[in-house]
Amino acid sequence: MRGLRLLQGLVLVCILLIPLLIFLFLRGFGENNYEIPVYYENGTNNPFKECPIGDSTQHYIPEFTFTNQEGNPVGKEQMEGKITIVDFFFTSCPSICPIMSQEMERVNDIFRDNPNVRILSISIDPEYDTPEILQEYADKHHADAGKWDFLTGDKLETYRLAKCGFILPTLDGNGIPDDFVHSDKFTLIDEQGRIRGYYSGTDRESVDLLILETKILLHGNE
């Protein structure tokens, strides 16, 4: 009998502790402890050995201006104060670009109505990818200029921007689609122009992480 009462007492204590434990758990879970890294706080160290030697301070995306699918200038100025997701591609790409563009279309659908998020897809084959070609490609992926811009520009500037600005490997294929080399990465840029993350544009889970971390950056700016 005494043992039964002791057992009942322990059960009662546990029942009384459950709300407290739930409260403590939710309070800890509700605190925003998710930190998104800031890349290249001490400079980029010129990883491709083709960029000007910089200093050891925070790296920012440099100034650039290209032409979008509607023939309008778009570049660093349009990124200021926005969270921007950037990839490098080309419309005749026979391998990873179709998958990347499908995944970027999914990202675009999620942030379509958010004016604080922009997407830039920059062609590494600007000699072929004219604004007219890019407009056809944009229409295929339901992309509106001003929200999701497909950009073309000077070839040397494009490759310099990829390697020295976004720190992504890029190799000119000289017009032969199979010879072009570019990264599959989507790059997340914050409103200050700092790189905050790289995500595989061919991997759905990695793109899901990009979507999550973009939302977290947006929440931090509210």
Automatic annotation (TrEMBL):
Cu cation binds at C93, C97, H182. Disulfide bonds join C93-C97. GO terms for molecular function: metal ion binding. The keyword Transmembrane applies. The keyword Disulfide bond applies. Keywords: Copper, Disulfide bond, Membrane, Metal-binding, Transmembrane, Transmembrane helix. The chain crosses the membrane at residues 6-26. Residues 55-219 form the Thioredoxin domain. Pfam families: SCO1-SenC. It comes from the Bacteria. Belongs to the SCO1/2 family. This is SCO1/SenC family protein. It comes from Algoriphagus machipongonensis.
